[in-house]
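haha ok so turns out i had the wrong file open the whole time. this is the CORRECT one, sorry everyone. sequence first:
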Amino acid sequence: MLEPDWRPLSGLATVYIVDDEACVRDLTRLLLKTVGLEATTFASPVEFLEKFDPDRPSCVVLDLRMPELNGIETLARLRERHGTVPVIFRTGYSELSAVIRAMKLGAVDFFEKPVSNDLLLESIQHWIQYDIKAYELRRQRKATWARLAKLSARQRQVLDCVLNGMSNKETARHLGVSPKAIEIHRALLMRKMEASNVVKLVVKAIGCLNFANQPDAPAPLLHSNKRSHLIDGA
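then structure:
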């Protein structure tokens, strides 16, 4: 199966750079520009939290030590509002306790300054791509929820039977109607759900219904960088 083309969504994506050092913000923004990534910079974590847009794919590059809120506090507040956005930390201070707290809050990477440009870009590009895909899945699930909400009570009953692996005849017996009526309801169900066949109907419906009960946080990207000797040197 061909992989989806995420390039149309890449124009929606942004990298949030939150750092109280202007030179760090500017250099990171210019670095990202070389690979065609848009960056939005903030000196204030409070302003960043106010202006963060959860409705677009993104990645956050967050400094650990800042005057108003430190990086851990900023991440904690961000997680309360928007649980899944990938967050990468940078710090000039080797604090093992901060690394542990950040990872427990769902940070996906942790670099010690000065950061290798290649490693930082590798991480940012990986997590932007991750969030673009997650964004598309969220968009698809939202559309599926909207279609589910438009089903009649009988169509929802037929869908439940389909999801339980029941044939048209079994569904007809279960609901006490004729097989012909089930064929009609099933055809209308497929049309409303925009599913060309039963397999696609099941994948859409189960994927959407199961998502409500599953965590959607990103898993950390493990690769060799200066983060390793923050831990190894403990």
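The first strand starts at residue 14 and ends at 18.
again sry for the mixup
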